[in-house]
Amino acid sequence: MKVISPRLHGYLDFLTVILFLLAPTLLDLSQTPAVLAYGLAVVHLIVTLASDFPFGVIKLIPFPIHGWIERIVGPSLIAMPFIFGFANEEIARNFYIAVGLVIIAVGVLTDYQSKAKD
After folding, report:
1. Which of 8, 25, 65, 103 is deepest in the core (most CB within 10 A)?
2. Is the distance from CB of 85 to CB of 37 less than 8 angstroms?
């Protein structure tokens, strides 16, 4: 059941950007996870603003493609602590795994095919 509309998904995207921007300070992340969080905030904001849905400004990325990007991002976030060598940092590791799981859940629950673009 797809209970997240494109508009609600947009709000969640902006919340994700804010979360990535605040996480390094709030969680006292070390350099690698902090730099990744800032980079992910920028990339997530660009994808959001470039998507064809209510919060898109440029509308270059069809909303179903936005969904496929997130289908890649969610599992990638879960893998990042292990790939980038900070899996032994409990707070950073758990943050990335939790955000990855949330993005996967939001992806499963979002109606990427919705015709309602308002």
Report:
1. 103
2. no
